[in-house]
């Protein structure tokens, strides 16, 4: 005998229309907030350096502190993200322009000029550059590779003194970045004058041997 237990006609059973998913809208809002934070942080860090209070970044980006911390749990995480994006962007542009220059010496000089010009407008970037050679070790390695590429083109053309190494040029760029930050734009062009003096010293016209670089065994230790 057929059971009639709970035999409610299908058409009479209550139905509930599914609610449309809200995830895509929330995801879009989160991406907009993240982009606003990064943009605001880039401007604030460039002007004031890495010690700035993150509350100022939150105010500038138009988000609350809770939203900022959901995207970036620490200021160091935010600073690393912002500087790596900026560093990679201008470093790539400077390299592309340099390799497009047929004159290998001019390519090297232009790379230094463009790099230092960008650093002159970014205090936090210079701070990181002096510490690790860039926002991250990957950025420093990228910059070192580009300098090595530009350097190897110059001796072949007889323009760069042959005893100059990639490490020499990388260290020179680091030192000049500090000069850029120290002198700023007062008086205008002061760091460019020092750059030209430095580049002139790298010319193959100078034949007096350079001092040998200190080995690790010769490096003073603090312990």
Automatic annotation (TrEMBL):
GO molecular function: DNA-binding transcription factor activity; transcription cis-regulatory region binding
Keyword Transcription: yes
Keyword Transferase among record annotations: no
Keywords annotated in UniProt: DNA-binding, Transcription, Transcription regulation
HTH tetR-type domain mapped to chain residues: 31-90
TM stretches of this protein: none
Pfam families reported for this sequence: TetR_C_43, TetR_N
DNA-binding feature ranges: 53-72
Stretches for region Disordered: 1-30, 203-223
PROSITE patterns for this protein: HTH_TETR_2 (PS50977)
Protein name, as recorded: TetR family transcriptional regulator
Species assigned in the record: Streptomyces capitiformicae
């Amino acid at each position: 005998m057929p059971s009639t237990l709970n035999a409610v006609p299908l058409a009479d059973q209550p139905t509930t229309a599914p609610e449309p998913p809200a995830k895509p809208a929330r995801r879009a809002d989160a991406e907009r907030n993240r982009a606003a934070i990064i943009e605001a942080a880039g401007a604030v860090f460039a002007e004031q350096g890495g010690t700035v209070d993150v509350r100022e970044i939150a105010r500038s980006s138009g988000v609350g502190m809770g939203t900022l911390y959901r995207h970036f749990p620490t200021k160091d995480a935010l600073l690393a993200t912002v500087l790596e994006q900026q560093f990679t962007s201008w470093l790539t542009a400077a390299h592309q322009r340099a390799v497009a220059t047929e004159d290998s010496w001019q390519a090297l000089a232009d790379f230094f000029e463009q790099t230092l010009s960008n650093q002159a407008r970014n205090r936090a970037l210079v701070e990181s550059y002096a510490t690790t050679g860039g926002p991250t070790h990957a950025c420093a390695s990228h910059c070192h590779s580009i300098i090595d590429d530009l350097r190897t083109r110059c001796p072949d053309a007889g323009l760069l003194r042959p005893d100059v190494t990639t490490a020499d040029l990388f260290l020179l760029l680091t030192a000049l970045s500090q000069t850029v930050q120290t002198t700023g734009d007062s008086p205008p062009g002061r760091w460019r004058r020092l750059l030209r003096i430095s580049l002139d010293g790298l010319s193959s016209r100078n034949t007096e041997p350079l001092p040998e670089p200190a080995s690790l065994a010769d490096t003073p230790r603090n312990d």
